[in-house]
Write a structure and sequence with these properties.
Elements lengths: L1 H26 L6 H9 L8 H17 L4 H22 L7 H10 L10 H7 L3 H10 L14 H8 L2 H10 L14 H7 L3 H10 L14 H7 L3 H10 L10 H14 L2 H8 L20 H7 L3 H10 L14 H8 L2 H10 L14 H7 L3 H8 L18 H7 L3 H9 L15 H7 L7 H13 L6 H8 L13 H5 L2 H23 L21 H27 L4 H33 L6 H23 L7 H17 L8
Length: about 675
Amino acid sequence: MATSSSTNEVIQDEITVNQAAEDLEATGDGRMDLKLYRYVTTGKVDQKSDFRAIITVPFCNLFSVFRQRVEVMIYQKILGFYEWLLHMYTTYCYSGFGIPSEVELLLQINGDKVSPGRNTVLHLAASVGNTHLVTQILDRFPSLVTENNCRGDSPLHVAAHGGHLSTVRCLVEKFKKLIGEKNAEGNTALHIALENHHKKVAKFLVEQDGLISHSQNNSKKIPLCMAAEAGNLDLVQVMVVMTPADRTSVWKESSGCSILRAAIVGRNNDILKTLLIKIDPTLIHVSKDGEEEGVPPLALAAYISNFDAVRCLLDKYSNDAYRQDTNGFFPIFIASRNGNIKIVQEFLNHCPDLKELHDKQGRNILHVAAAYGQAKLVEYILGTTKLEMLLNERDNFGNTPLHIAVQNWHPRIVKILTRDKRVHQKILNNKEMTAFDIAEKSEVHKDMLFRWKLTFMALRLANAPRSEIQRVAKESGANDYGEKTKNNPDYLLFSRENMNTLLIVSTLVAAITFAAGFTVPGGYKNSGTDEGMATLRNTALFQIFLICNTISMYSSITVAIALIWAQAGDLKMICVAVRTILPMLGLALIMMSVAFLAGVDLVANNLTCGYVVVALGAFFIVQVVVFILPLTIPLSSKNFITHFILRGNLRLLMMVTRYEVESG
């Protein structure tokens, strides 16, 4: 009876297998059975008994509510702990038990089938870190280990992506050749592990094959570079030690340069020192065609302001400080462009003769600092006696640092340079122009108008001279209105759009002051011999109100008339407008502000808040005066008091516009 029963079971199993095979063949799509897919990825044959599926939905709903009440960091930690629990359940709770008979049958007839992403059962088991199932699949279907999914990933790739060290170890121990296999993007399993920050997996792979640390993917990324850029000192040290001693070529040319650059970007000085033992920068800068291979390491360190890397490279290879990049810039020039005083000092301490270097345009480090508005570095150079030779040096176009600062409209740099008596303001460039000539004659983009105004003020207040040719032309009365173009600062300042805006402002001021003249503070008397007269006419504040209001009204009317004439677009008329309209409009606004304060003080004289109102009004009137003074006072004035006021005004304007604190 027992034998008969046993025989019947075998026959029944064969019938079941054959029936399943016929059903799968009938579909004709070669897809993996869903029950097998569910078992490999979750550990359960059906969804009803799947612990993961049962608890995931309610827990996700709970987390979505909880996330609104806690910080994102706390939420991520809780979610990570939850995922770890699920992984432990998947890996250990069912891995120790045998595979169900139903799955055994499915695996037997379905083992070579793939999911829509062309993942085999081995891919799926490796992706969830089920080492027990991976071992059994390898024993039954060893050929699956070489199969790749639609992205070219091998089972080792997907195991490394999930950070499953035991699964990775199992696959490598049985098929070590998988370590060097690349996917469609050229990534090895080590690339994948590093991209996903799985340090233990990466360390294991390196220990198995040290040369893989130098494998390059399609994006030319090297695992050693990735580890160095991430600042992973332990892993870098393992990679250096495990690199075969007979493969010295991996440290040279473009590969070595890339590794050094990655260490510099990673900002880990210990990693850089570790790599410098193996890499000789003198062997990696020049490629086979004689051109620079990317950005030299020292130049990169200066560019990202990595002081420790600069010091480390200069200590070992100071000759690199004399290497130019593709733009003709030396590393110290890059530091000057960034305004990094500490790095510039380090360069000069190691190589004092770097101050004599020039770029392709013949500029020194002071030229560069002036061109990029690095005010603090300019002050440092001016305060360093050993760098005095740079102050008046001319580039290939004859421009001194002062010329360069004016050309780039850096008012603070101009103010710093013109304040130093060692800076010669009369030097002419190759076009026989002084710095003041450049400010006066250069065409200005409309976005730079205010910077041009401040720069011109700084030169005027420093009594910057014109060239002899321009001075004679000025004294002889020769005008250059015909030479002015539409990019001239005066023309841009009074473009049709700007003139229309000023016309609206002046008209509004005239209307307001006109109305205020007939609605005086305190009103009018309604009876007696003084009927119709202002009630407060005998007070001093009323008289101040009346005078200021009158000046404001007629000034604004004058401005409106002048602007109507300027609408013709005549260049000479526009230049005249610059000298008359803005001062008149400024006067109108100041007088209107004073008239308002006087009127408010009249009606609030006996109130508790009267003093507060007067104090606030006085404060804001001072602000108005400060901002309007540069428009009303002629910059050509030689008066000491006028210069004193304008200097303070210039400094305040630069502070407000942030030009006083330019980078550097």
